[in-house]
Design a protein that fits this description.
homodimer; Isopropylmalate Dehydrogenase; 11 helices
């Protein structure tokens, strides 16, 4: 798209455990930081209209229904046509918005985006990607949960989509793509991994082969491809491990008064580290393979996570992520 | 077995990157610490005989061949009948030793133990378990790589075997067993996970349902069951994450002179933490489901890892792990 008009990001005002307050604060922060962005806020009239009245570049779009975190995604999407998630996806499809963000039910966002926006031609299975902090540059990991059972051809499409995301959103010129596996040799792994390795070797530009679990955080890979089961376990394990380790370190550091003093000296450094490891910085999880930019925040998204997601959505729109994915999937650059 | 004779642990003198020196030091340390253990050392005559001459409770058992880390496991085991790994497993089968330990090729150990010791009746697929440090008590994770592709019935057997290990080696009276999955509800996950959840609910004592990646280190579960692909990724990811985080913390802590001073104050606490997280403390990875105690060390095992593995092997023999697994698999306690 051209840069002469603002990017219009549609935001689900009632998605997430901390909605609407943190969502609204996040929108306000994003508007302050990003002068070329406008927001269409979807949700209950009494939430979205007063906010739009008070903020420039915000359009209120009332929606009467909400999809809860525990509803069955596909049935909720089919039955609640006027829910914030379904309406948001429809605004993108109809060209009223350029991107959609929600911190609501991941399943419902996936179902709505797939049904309402539609899939990009050549994409059998949209995938959820996530950007993870590593020892080096951040890496795109996908699929992290959209598809628990995959075929090799799906993994090949994930590789193309992840590489397009790395190029267009993370600004990596020649992404290095790897398959998450349990050995480095091409013949190692599950039947799926062996078949996917062979297929990816043939058609995925920048494919460097297998990496093992211990290399995920090495920073030497830009796109890590796996099935949605392994990817989801990987992502949640990373979150859990960081949390457990940092909390154990904290308790060691405050075990005695003298340690507490020493810890205070180190606090700025550890705070910097914690910030670098903060997944919120990368702005939620993009659903790749649908016809429009769709970013899904985790349920506990705070204002910072929301504003970063709006930033990422804007970059994805400006750099034409959706068409880049369509091109990568239809005619892989070899 | 009765406590009136020493446990005889057979050790592969030439297994691992640091063999034989670290292996021999580990054997010496184990003998000092464990008065009720004798060691049969298998390997080249010039390595094992001088060591046996100098140490009480060591029998040298020369073997003329060695299986390298990069050899095809099954073919190497078939062709090298006088390799330390094959000979070690044979000594267990023939009742000349009670347990076997090697830090050599994992694949070759698995193949040799399965072919030479044989499988326990009812075990279609032996599994490699590993004990991981958590925020609470250590947990048994299996399979971590023996079986990249699994069926639900294999996961059920893994659950029984892991629970037997927790009872007999980790001294957990009523192990809590969980399935690693990508959601807590029984209907979540891959086709394999859904089927395994149903089967485990029916027959596995202490089964508490699914856990997600973020709960692996919670310390609330004693036995975490998964297929060998997911388990291997999980284990290596845990290793990689701890390593990356601790190294980043170290570099933050030494970034300025004053931080280095403060870090020195905290050093004992962090050292204690590092020791608690050290997987070597749990003594290698037991291969469960074969007719004999078989412990596989990682290739980089040092003397401490070797001595801990001998300690664990001794506990497993004294507490009759092999029969406990046979009973658990044949007649699950419900």
């Amino acid at each position: 798209m051209t840069a002469d008009r603002p990017v219009r990001v549609c935001v689900d005002a009632v998605g997430g455990d901390k909605a609407p307050s943190e969502v609204l604060m996040g929108v306000a922060a994003a508007l302050r930081a990003l002068p070329d962005v406008s927001v269409t806020l979807v949700g209950p009239d009494e939430v979205v209209t007063p906010f739009a009245d008070k903020h420039e570049r915000v359009i209120a779009h009332p929606a009467t229904e909400t999809i809860g975190m525990d509803e069955h995604p596909a049935s909720a999407v089919r039955s609640k046509k006027d829910s914030s998630i379904v309406v948001g996806c429809r605004l993108v499809r109809e060209g009223e918005a350029d991107a959609f963000f929600s911190a609501g039910s991941t399943g419902a966002c996936m179902a709505a985006a797939t049904l309402v926006m539609g899939r990009i031609r050549g994409v059998a299975r949209p995938a959820i990607a996530t950007v993870i902090p590593t020892a080096g540059a951040p890496a795109v990991l996908l699929d992290v949960g959209a598809n628990a059972d995959c075929k090799a051809e799906h993994l090949v499409a994930f590789a193309h989509m992840g590489a397009a995301y790395a190029r267009r959103v993370l600004d990596v010129t020649e992404p290095r793509v790897a398959l998450l596996n349990i050995g480095e040799e091409p013949t190692k792994g599950s039947a799926l991994a062996i078949e996917a390795h062979e297929a990816m070797s043939a058609v995925v530009p920048g494919f460097v082969g297998n990496i093992e679990g211990r290399d995920v955080l090495s920073g030497e890979i830009d796109v890590i491809v796996t099935d949605g089961f392994t990817g989801n376990v990987t992502l949640k394990l990373l979150e859990g491990t960081s949390k457990t380790l940092l909390s154990q370190i904290k308790s060691e550091m405050t075990a005695t008064p003298i340690r507490t003093v020493a810890a205070a000296v180190l606090a700025p450094g550890l705070k910097g580290l914690k910030a670098r490891l903060d997944p919120d910085a990368y702005g939620g999880a993009p659903l790749l393979g649908v016809r429009g930019v769709c970013i899904i925040g985790h349920g506990s998204s705070n204002a910072y996570a929301v504003s970063q997601a709006i930033r990422v959505a804007t970059t994805a729109v400006r750099n034409d992520l959706t068409n880049a994915i369509a091109e990568a999937v239809e005619s892989p650059r070899t």
